[in-house]
Amino acid sequence: MPFAYAMPMNMKWNSLPTALCAIIALAVTMPTADAGGRRDEQDAARRAMLDGQVMPFSMIKRRVDAAMGGASYVGSEFNPSANRYRLKYVKDGKVMWVDADGRTGDIIGMAR
């Protein structure tokens, strides 16, 4: 009798434990906790820019980039109560945080 090259596999989905199925279902349907907060932050920054309270972020980032001496931009946060941006940079393996005034784009603080 010749051997088949591949044998058919009969996988039974009902053989997975119920708890594992529940965990998979939760992981697929549950949004990340940070997604809502980040979206609210972006909305606040956009509203402040449209209301004329802050400069467009691209202008602020360009001004800060020029002062960072080749450091790599990683990300940013917006504080709507103070109209300030906090930009994160990395250079030579060191993280640098730069606070910028959203109204003027001026650097108001730096931490390493």
Structural commentary:
It is a single chain. With 112 residues, this protein is of the alpha+beta class. 37% of the residues lie in helices and 26% in strands. It has three helices and four strands. A four-stranded antiparallel β-sheet has the order 1-2-3-4. Strand 3 and strand 4 form a beta hairpin.
Short description:
By secondary structure, the protein is α+β, with helices and mostly antiparallel strands.
Helical amount among residues, as a percent range? 25-40%
Biggest beta sheet attributes: 4 strands, antiparallel
Number of helices: 3
Strand order of the largest sheet: 1-2-3-4
Order of helices and strands: HHHEEEE
Q: Unreliable stretches, pLDDT < 50, 5 or more residues?
A: none
Name a few traits of the molecule.
alpha+beta, 3 helices, 112 residues, four-stranded antiparallel beta sheet
What is the secondary structure topology, with strand pairs?
Elements (H helix, E strand, L loop, with lengths): L17 H12 L3 H18 L6 H11 L4 E8 L4 E8 L2 E8 L5 E5 L1
Antiparallel strand pairs: 1-2, 2-3, 3-4
